[in-house]
Amino acid sequence: MPDANKKGWFTSLAQQTAALAGSPPAFGLAIGVVVVWALTGPIFHFSDVWQLVINTGTTIVTFLMVFLVQNAQNRDGKIIQLKLDELIRAIETAETAYVAMDEMSEPELDELHARYLRLAQKARSKNSGRLAKIAEEKAAEVENEADARDAQSAPGDLVTAETGHLGAVTQLQIPS
After folding, report:
1. For 16-48, b where at least 16 C-beta lie within 10 A, e where not — what string?
2. pTM given for the model
3. Predicted pLDDT of residue 164
4. Domain ranges of the chain
């Protein structure tokens, strides 16, 4: 396991702060600060200084957190990219020219994106007949299941049916 000291103090601080700031206790603390601030409003007659305290405090915290969280996100993104690069490199059939793709220019990325869009469209058009047949078979299967339920249901019964590819649930009442 890599030594934590090798990361540097700022990276360690950024990672620990990002983890802490995203925790339930930190959220609870923030809620507590806002509640205490709101409850002290009548004591300070909702003065400009009272408002300035929360505005200044939140501005300073937000300003500092932006840098710490951004550092942690940059590091996490780099680590994920390196892991993906290693997976691409390790798979024999993968296009290893795409390792370190993050170094490509915007026009190169756009060209690559357009290439993959064309490949996806080609695959969809090639498979559209097969997919339509599968959809028809699934629709017929659902219809047959509904007919079987209808045959077993009495008028006035409440019937639950699963429909659609997302499994949406619908309740229907059999007419009397």
Report:
1. ebbeebeeeeeeeeeeeeeeebeeeeeeeeeee
2. 0.49
3. 47
4. 4-101, 122-173
